[in-house]
Specification:
The protein is an alpha/beta fold. It has helices at 4-11, 20-29, 50-61, 92-106, 123-126, 131-137, 144-147, 151-159, 163-166, 168-183, 195-209, 246-254, 261-268, 273-280, 287-303, 305-320, 336-341, 345-351, 358-366, and strands at residues 16-17, 33-38, 65-70, 118-121, 187-191, 214-218, 231-232, 235-236, 331-334, 343-344, 370-372, 375-376, 383-384, 393-398, 402-408. Helix 12 runs antiparallel to helix 15, helix 12 packs across helix 16 and helix 13 (261-268) packs antiparallel against helix 14.
Length: 409
């Protein structure tokens, strides 16, 4: 059986490694404790977080000891990486509330209950730091000249880097040192944009404890058309069912570009690579089968098997124009009085998040891409009222595959 490192590499998780042979040997000869950090800046993680989550999940399945580090301390500073402006400041109450939600979410992928994976909060040590002692003990090991060469800092130097944000690399490095000392964690994982911060932590462990540590980064994921993974016209693809329905989550994966199917099956499902290679080789109309399997497997991992089956049923019903299973479509309740008075079709499409703006709906209607109960919307002045109710519901469609159900409150 392949070792954890070779599995990560085969599935496309590996970009940069401090010492490939040392990392491979460690995974093959010992139980490795490794970590990835997640900053709780919202109540939900999103698809952009799935690569690090699935890295930890694959490592756990190989019998090693992952740590999901939540940044109860670092979220108070905010990571400047990839940002052209400072993130909003969050209160400790908001951060702690976000952590509770994120822990439940990560529990869908990682086994915290039996202890196979640990969840650790860096607030344990960061919120208690004595500033002077920290500068004396840790700050002396960091070169400002070297820190300024980091891509994250160079980008922000153009728009204004605060001293607070400048400290982020030092705090992240200190996290690695504390995890090394307290949990025997000898490896950090993260995205390519974190390479400089991660190496700073490796160096801090070498300087402070005269010990070696390793690191792996994954490629920053973009789709074949060059877009950042998980960014859509409708906003972020959240992992929480409260922020994005399982049906919409399923639809996100069904709409994967043909060129990305094989890569995404390897990264975001646990299917054997032999099966993935077979699915990725499909062409023409047959690639839809691979997309459906990707969508089902990804939804099952995130929302559970029942929700995945419901999403499949709802999709099949919507595309067939039937009502069986339509209850599982994203649904908005409308006050009967509002419907009796009538609602402009553009307002309703925006209200149900099928479009972000009225101008977007106008273009959709003009291009023939909007329908109500299977009938093409003739013009932007159409008024939706109680006469449009069909078996107690109104079925809206935007484009070929985005559906929404409107019912009375």
């Amino acid at each position: 059986m392949a070792g954890a490192f070779d599995i990560l590499k085969e599935r496309g998780f590996v970009s940069q490694v401090t010492d490939e042979e040392a990392v491979r040997r460690a995974f093959e000869t010992e139980t490795v404790t490794c970590y990835i950090g997640f900053d709780p800046t919202a109540r939900s993680l999103h698809v952009g977080n799935l690569v690090p989550i699935m890295m930890l999940a694959n490592i756990e399945r190989c019998g090693h000891k992952p740590i999901a580090l939540v940044g109860g301390g670092t979220a108070m500073i905010a990571d400047p990486t990839g940002k052209d402006e400072m993130r909003p400041m969050l209160t400790t109450e908001t951060i702690d509330d976000n952590i509770a939600w994120v822990k439940r979410q990560l529990g869908h992928y990682l086994d915290f209950e039996s202890g196979k994976t640990l969840m650790v909060n860096n607030a344990e040590w960061l919120r208690q730091l004595n500033y002077i002692d920290f500068l004396r003990e840790i700050g002396t090991h960091f070169s400002v000249n070297r820190m300024l060469t980091a891509e994250a800092y160079k980008m922000r130097m153009e728009t204004g880097l605060t001293f607070q944000e400048f400290n982020y690399q030092i705090l992240q490095s200190y996290d690695f040192l504390m995890l090394f000392r307290n949990y025997g964690c000898s490896m950090q994982l993260g995205g390519d944009d974190q390479w400089g911060n991660i190496l700073a932590g490796v160096d801090l462990i070498r300087r402070k404890d005269r010990a070696s540590a390793e690191a792996i980064t994954s490629p920053l994921l973009t789709t074949s058309d060059g877009k950042k993974m998980g960014k859509t016209a409708g906003g972020a693809i959240w992992l929480s069912a409260d922020m994005l329905s399982p049906y919409d989550y399923y639809q996100f994966w069904v709409n994967t570009d043909d060129r990305d199917v094989g890569r995404f099956l390897a990264l975001f499902t646990f299917l054997p690579m032999e099966e993935i290679h077979t699915l990725a080789s499909l062409e023409g109309a047959d690639i839809r089968q691979a997309k459906s399997i990707l969508a089902y497997e990804a939804t099952k991992i995130t929302h559970g098997e029942e929700e995945a089956k419901s999403a499949v049923q709802a999709a099949q019903s919507a595309f067939a124009g039937g009502s069986n299973g339509s209850d599982n479509l994203p649904t908005t309740e409308i006050d009967p009085a509002r419907l009796e008075a009538g609602i402009n079709v553009m307002d309703l499409f925006v209200e149900t998040n099928l479009s972000q703006t009225k101008s977007e709906v106008r273009r959709l209607i003009q291009q023939g891409g909007a329908s109500v109960n299977g009938e093409r919307v003739p013009d932007i002045d159409l008024t939706i009222n109680a006469d449009h109710l069909d078996n107690g519901a109104i079925l809206l469609r935007a484009g070929k595959k985005r559906y929404h159900r409107v019912v009375l409150a």
